[in-house]
Amino acid sequence: xxxxxxxxxxxxxxxxxxxxxxxxxxxxxxxxKAGRDxxxxxxxxxxxxxxxxxxxKELAGKPYVRIRDVDTRAxxxxxxxxxxxxxxxxxxxxxxxxxxxxxxxDDAVETxxxxxxxxxxxxxxxxxxxxxxxxxxxxxxxYDLFDSITTSEDAGFYKPHPRPFxxxxxxxxxxxxxxxxxxxxxxxxxxxAKNVGMFSVLLDPSGAKRELWVNCDFxxxxxxxVVDIVKGLQED
Length: 236
What we know:
The chain is about 50% helix and about 10% strand. By secondary structure, it is an alpha/beta fold. The mean pLDDT is about 95.
């Protein structure tokens, strides 16, 4: 009997497009504080994204280090390249921009509510610092919709390490086979969930990750499709 559904956050509940806009505004604010209006925001953003992505790729499955430190290291690498100073309140700027510009998928709220109406525990499992996820969820107006929130900071490891998934299951009081995990990363989300015995659902709106679908139990193009999958599993 299915009892719980957990979601990833970035790229699953909030759009990657919105995240890109958020990060562009972060860079814009950083350059403004540094007095470097001569630098191209998009170019600096692209290099910041590349540095950040490379650092996080190295951290997959490894012990937790603060995301604020990883992001700061990424922007400082670019700052050294272009000779500007990163403001001391960089992380506060980052959280403020996420609060302002983050965007949910259109069907995120209706999907969460539909799952809760089925009597399910609905939670989040995300590679995140606690202050970031709490501020972001509250700004989006969905913080109170979740029964549990499990971060890499809580678990001490990054996905796909088993610990974030195991801790979330403990919080919900359910066994792995009674839970579904929905994410947008086949390697971290699907593999991580399946390795502990959970059902895995990949959100892939454009079908761009088709070659990696084999890692996932189900693939959807819209979050709302998760409700039908869950209903089907409840009937099994």
